């Protein structure tokens, strides 16, 4: 109750008491004074109750504004990939990637509707620190990235409120996100990198995420070392979590990236093929001492072992073979077959059969390249 109203009530009560008092009636005046004090106390108590009630109403109004405007509230979410700054190398046991994102979320809250003529503006715009203050006072879907490794760094954000209560939230941020990778086709692999968005506070009963298709895409001019972005699509699903007995609505942005195999081709695959072909030169050295042929072949084997160690050091401890592993083991096998061929030639020479040893060399000159090529093609088909 306002102080002027309180004083007015007190004035009326005191005036009424004075009108009832007669000159010389001391007891009546004393009684009226006591009554006036009692009424004043009642007014003070009433004023306190009014203030307390008003405070409670304010708290209830603030609490109501922090509740979803509907059940459920449909939140449109757009994801635009500005660029991928890093994808962890295949040697890391816990792969991740760093992405710069532009997010836009839209929902409608009729409680925020306003008359643009009375407000003197067509759109209410909040930027910088104003956004943090606004989101503490009003309801918003509390969006987060479920599979991020660290809290995303928000570079900038703003909020726009339209006259009909439509809220537009925009954010530019940098996030480090866990990745699930399949290296079976390495180094010719294609990976699907997921970014999972969900509300931290509200399950699917209160918030339902839907794609904002007009804001889904990626910057085709951005290029990441070793990787090329081929596609970005969004999927909507519901998933249960331990924190609630009800499922949460999730929007998953799936980024398809393709590895550029050039580095691994020139540094590993091509040298392995050259080592294999050098081992085949023994087929054109008929009559050469067996020890010299064996020495040359074992040098090729040791070279393959060294390359295999380099490849193993650049891969995590996975339980399956990659395409590059298959190439290495194929080179191992073909080099071992060269050693067996040398032994057969040596036995033919020791048995006094030079024609047979010559025939073995001539056959090996075309048979080994043919078998190796067919095995390599088969490996490629199986891996892809």
Specify the overall morphology.
rod-shaped
Residue windows where pLDDT falls under 50 for at least 5 positions: 1-36
Identify the CATH homologous superfamily of the largest domain.
Answer: Neurotransmitter-gated ion-channel ligand-binding domain
How many DSSP E strands?
A: 11
In CATH, the architecture of the largest domain is Distorted Sandwich
User: How far do the termini sit from each other?
Assistant: 80 Å
Q: What's the structural domain tally? A: 3
Helix and strand layout, with pairings?
Elements: H1 3-20, H2 26-65, E1 73-87, E2 96-108, H3 116-119, E3 124-127, H4 129-137, E4 143-145, E5 153-161, E6 166-178, E7 190-199, E8 207-211, E9 217-218, E10 227-241, E11 244-259, H5 262-279, H6 290-313, H7 323-350, H8 354-383
Give a quick summary of the entry.
With 384 residues, the protein is of the alpha+beta class. Helix content is 45%, strand content 27%. It folds into 3 domains: 3-65, no CATH class; 73-260, Neurotransmitter-gated ion-channel ligand-binding domain (Acetylcholine Binding Protein, Chain: A, Distorted Sandwich), CATH 2.70.170.10; 263-383, Methane Monooxygenase Hydroxylase, Chain G, domain 1 (Up-down Bundle).
Would you kindly provide a written description of the structure presented here, covering whatever features stand out?
- The protein has 384 residues and is of the alpha+beta class.
- The chain folds into three domains: 3-65, no CATH class; 73-260, Neurotransmitter-gated ion-channel ligand-binding domain (Acetylcholine Binding Protein, Chain: A, Distorted Sandwich), CATH 2.70.170; 263-383, Methane Monooxygenase Hydroxylase, Chain G, domain 1.
- 45% of the residues lie in helices and 27% in strands.
- The strands form two sheets. Strands 1, 2, 3, 5, 6, 8 and 9 form a seven-stranded mixed sheet that branches. Strands 4-7-11-10 form a four-stranded antiparallel sheet, with no helix packed on it.
- α1 (3-20) packs antiparallel against α2 (26-65) and α5 packs parallel to α7.
